[in-house]
Design the sequence.
């Protein structure tokens, strides 16, 4: 999974949905600067599920947010679906920052699910799902509603269509949030600790929706502490610590037979 | 514990406590004392011949007074409308990435909040002295057209804009507080869906910020009603305070005419307070009203506001500046 060490110069137009190359992220300036990502390489093949594990503060959420440009990277490159994110490279190799409109368009192809759901509280479940297709894609309300109802059925909430987020449980809110992201027909789905804010008995319903999504062939990157989910659903597991990828590979290899001491220590705490 | 039947029959609490309350004689004494004081005040108002209640009743519906009320209302709502537009622009400028926009907005708010409204109104009144001719053109370059200041900017327009400019500074802070009270996660979620900044503001941030913005704006309107009495500084001479005091001076009866002005301000304020009460109820602010309102279930709009309140994505307790 980690990058082939020297062929990193050319962004691959291959089967990779995401290729992250030597990404650095520094927050702040001068004395207050915090170096959160210290040269991360990551390839995510189309249709695969990658689970990122690691202690809090290891930079895994930041990496996710750099992939869809919620954070501007300080160094390196992120390529999603063959497009360089956030920049245009001219003939001389000089980078030009893309206009926010273009960045917004790039983002619209990537779905994201947040730890604290972030549903729009002034819209019902179905309106939350319709919002982006109508406002960004310019779909008619009727068509968007039709599609929203399909998606809400897919996450098993057909009886909660007209409820406001405040009237839904955490697990239900997160399933609506997943449906909202899916409404834009994303090529890639990012999950940022999707079950961390849930009561234990509600975790299962969200994980099972994610598992169905993985089976349907969606490319997914999931930051989570659910080792069981990683073992069952992931094609690749990545272990991050202190801003770098320490170890990566198939779930059995990383989870059951870790080679690095830091991975062993972390798994000993979580399991 | 084998039987549920209580000895007293219907009462589910078999051992209900019937204790004597703590004696509080001080409460009774205080209530009586305050009531006596209130009666003395009422007596002093009603029986004092010098208030001339007959004159109050005579001039209360005088055409000049009614016109004064109209002008006061025009000034109040006109200047508030202009101030709201300016305030939204100023608040957006304060949040802008552009340092020029940010500083201009800051300086505007600093100046108009930092000087007394009375001083500002006198200043606007002297505009024609400072600049007898106003012209539009390029700085240090050619002029496109010009006009005489006192012909175009009459006392009414100067008063209207003078009040609006001052108010815009206060409202801008209220709007800004409303915008910053919305959870930044809302912006991120909207961004992640590919929405552009303008759409995020219109569709996601503003509808939630209104909860925080609207109730204090109602408050500012009530405050503005009384601030309009200061436009005599411009001088504008047809609003309620000036109209009544002019009659008072002419008839040598200043006190009953002051009472008339006070009664009209009280009446309009009372009407605005009723409106304010419903606004606050609708936007679910205030103390302990939100649960009661949710239980009543007032249509989809009330439900929406209740939903925003319950979601907790908007802080209710934001720092607001209140007009002095």
Sequence:
């Amino acid at each position: 999974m980690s990058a082939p060490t020297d062929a990193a110069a050319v962004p691959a137009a291959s089967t990779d949905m995401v290729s992250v190359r030597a990404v650095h992220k520094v927050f702040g300036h001068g004395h207050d600067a915090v170096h959160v990502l210290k040269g991360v390489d990551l390839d995510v093949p189309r249709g695969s599920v990658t689970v990122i594990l690691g202690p809090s503060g290891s930079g895994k959420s930041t990496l996710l947010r750099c992939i869809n440009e919620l954070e501007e990277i300080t160094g390196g490159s992120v390529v999603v679906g063959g497009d360089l994110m956030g920049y245009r490279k001219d003939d001389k190799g000089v980078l030009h920052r893309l206009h926010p409109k273009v960045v917004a368009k790039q983002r619209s192809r990537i779905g994201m699910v947040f730890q604290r759901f972030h549903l729009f509280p002034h819209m019902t479940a179905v309106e939350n799902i319709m919002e982006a297709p109508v406002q960004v894609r310019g779909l008619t309300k009727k068509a968007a509603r039709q599609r929203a109802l399909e998606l809400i059925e897919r996450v098993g909430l057909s009886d909660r269509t007209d409820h406001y987020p405040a009237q839904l449980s955490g697990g239900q809110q997160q399933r609506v949030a997943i449906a909202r992201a899916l409404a834009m027909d994303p090529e890639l789905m990012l999950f940022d600790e999707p079950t961390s804010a849930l009561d234990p008995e509600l975790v299962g319903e969200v994980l099972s929706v994610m598992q169905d999504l993985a089976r349907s062939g969606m490319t997914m990157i999931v930051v989570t502490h659910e080792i069981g989910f990683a073992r069952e659903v992931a094609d690749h597991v990545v272990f991050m610590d202190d801003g770098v990828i320490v170890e990566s590979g198939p779930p059995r290899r990383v989870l059951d037979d870790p080679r690095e001491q830091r991975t062993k220590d972390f798994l000993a705490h979580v399991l | 514990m084998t039987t549920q039947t209580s000895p007293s029959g219907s009462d589910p609490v078999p051992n209900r406590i019937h204790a004597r309350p703590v004696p509080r004689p001080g409460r009774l004494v205080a209530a009586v004392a305050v009531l006596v004081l209130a009666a003395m005040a009422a007596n002093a108002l009603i029986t004092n011949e010098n208030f001339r209640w007959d004159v109050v009743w005579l001039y209360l519906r005088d055409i000049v007074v009614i016109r004064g009320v109209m002008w006061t209302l025009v000034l109040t709502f006109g200047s508030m409308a202009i101030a709201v537009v300016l305030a939204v622009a100023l608040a957006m400028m304060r949040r802008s990435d552009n340092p020029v926009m940010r500083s201009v907005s800051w300086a505007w708010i600093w100046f108009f909040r930092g000087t007394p409204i009375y001083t500002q109104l006198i200043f606007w009144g002297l505009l024609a002295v400072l600049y007898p001719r106003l012209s539009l053109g390029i700085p240090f370059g050619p002029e496109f057209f010009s006009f005489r200041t006192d012909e175009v900017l009459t006392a009414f327009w100067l008063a209207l804009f003078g009040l609006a400019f001052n108010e815009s500074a206060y409202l801008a802070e209220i709007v800004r507080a409303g915008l910053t009270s919305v959870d930044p996660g809302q912006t991120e979620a909207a961004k992640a869906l590919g929405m552009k900044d303008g759409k995020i503001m219109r569709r996601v941030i503003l509808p939630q910020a209104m909860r925080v913005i609207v109730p204090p704006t109602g408050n500012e309107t009530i405050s503005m009603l009384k601030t309009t009495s200061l436009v005599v500084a411009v001088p504008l001479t047809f609003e309620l305070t000036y109209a009544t005091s002019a009659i008072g001076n002419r008839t040598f009866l200043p006190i009953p005419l002051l009472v008339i002005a006070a009664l009209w301000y009280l009446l309009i304020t009372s009407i605005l307070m009723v409106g304010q009460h419903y606004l606050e109820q609708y936007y679910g602010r205030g103390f302990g009203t939100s649960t009661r309102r949710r239980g009543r279930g007032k249509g989809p709009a009330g439900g929406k506001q209740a939903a925003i309140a319950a979601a907790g994505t908007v802080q209710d307790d934001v720092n607001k500046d209140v007009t002095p």
